[in-house]
């Protein structure tokens, strides 16, 4: 009886302590595996301000760029699973890179805990307003009927944008020359200078160039038109491209063995953030769609994406350098 009483007292004591010190007790780090000023970083900073208010603790954005996102992701893999280090990921470092056959110093499926899908953006197909194709229809029709071989740039071989371009070619039955760059910025610079015919990349780094008329947005790769450029068609509107869809999305991940309760609380904070009209507006202006899928739906989405990317790789016969 005495032993039982002592155990009950201990459980009560520790339970009270746990309730008295709910997570988080200190600032939370949100690692962005890309440079400051990019699309993922912009979304992270919009979210971090809102999540800080919701949690009552500062959420600090830390940029750990390099190796197509792998350096930042590995920092989260190595972090303690205590709820103070998270990854805001693009598809590259958690899904696309291994499908492209490139080695990673971690296993995304075993070493990271998926928490929530927290937004997406269509890819944009942009061309020089005077030197490039004038419309998506012209681009595809010229390639199909006249045998014109366009070249296009992406942020890298094996990137989401490379897969998007390969899928377009496979569906439309055309042959374009892929020119991989080390990031979106040099690809955009070359299409601005007329060195390449068009670029496929995320919408956020293109917004300013499109609005100032320096680049022509031929189409977006989402299922529907972008609210930011409602007069620009989605690729799937072209009869020969029906069903086509590719987006660059944002995923929230923690280290392996993250306590489920912390993951749920972080997911709920993001859900609360996207209910704020000001947050949604800022994300939309930056090219992002504010939408959150909780853990179970996100895990299912990841499985579907892996299957889809593998199918594109195999059917398109992609050559990934």
TrEMBL record:
Record keywords = Signal
What family name appears in the similarity comment?
A: Belongs to the UPF0065 (bug) family.
Q: What is this protein called?
A: Tripartite tricarboxylate transporter substrate binding protein
Instruction: List the signal peptide residues.
Output: 1-20
User: InterPro entries from the entry?
Assistant: BUG, Bug_dom1
In terms of superkingdom, the source organism counts as: Bacteria
């Amino acid at each position: 009886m005495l032993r039982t009483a002592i155990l009950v007292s201990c459980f009560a004591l520790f339970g009270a302590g746990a309730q008295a010190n709910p997570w988080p007790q200190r600032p939370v780090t949100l690692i962005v595996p890309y440079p400051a000023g990019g699309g993922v970083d912009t979304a992270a900073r919009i979210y971090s301000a809102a999540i800080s208010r919701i949690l009552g603790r500062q959420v600090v954005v830390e940029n750990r760029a390099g190796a197509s996102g792998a350096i930042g992701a590995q920092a989260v893999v190595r972090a303690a699973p205590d709820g103070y280090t998270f990854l805001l990921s693009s598809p590259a470092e958690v899904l696309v890179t291994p499908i492209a056959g490139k080695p990673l110093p971690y296993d995304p499926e075993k070493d990271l805990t998926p928490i929530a899908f927290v937004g997406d953006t269509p890819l944009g197909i942009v061309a020089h307003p005077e030197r490039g194709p004038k419309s998506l229809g012209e681009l595809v029709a010229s390639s199909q009927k006249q045998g014109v071989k366009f070249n296009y740039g992406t942020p890298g071989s094996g990137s989401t944008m490379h897969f998007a371009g390969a899928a377009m070619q496979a569906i439309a039955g055309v042959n374009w020359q892929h020119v991989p760059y080390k990031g979106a910025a040099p690809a955009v610079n070359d299409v601005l200078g007329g060195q390449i015919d068009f670029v496929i990349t995320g919408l956020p780094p293109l917004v300013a160039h499109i609005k100032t008329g320096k680049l022509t947005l031929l189409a977006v790769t989402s299922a529907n038109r972008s609210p930011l450029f409602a007069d620009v068609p989605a690729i799937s509107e072209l009869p020969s491209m029906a069903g086509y869809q590719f987006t660059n999305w944002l995923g929230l991940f923690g280290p392996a063995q993250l306590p489920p309760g912390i993951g749920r609380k972080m997911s709920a904070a993001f859900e609360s953030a996207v209910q704020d009209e000001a947050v949604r507006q800022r994300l939309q202006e930056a090219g992002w769609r504010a939408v959150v899928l909780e853990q179970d739906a996100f895990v299912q989405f990841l499985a579907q994406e892996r299957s889809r990317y593998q199918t594109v790789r195999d059917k398109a016969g992609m050559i990934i350098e």
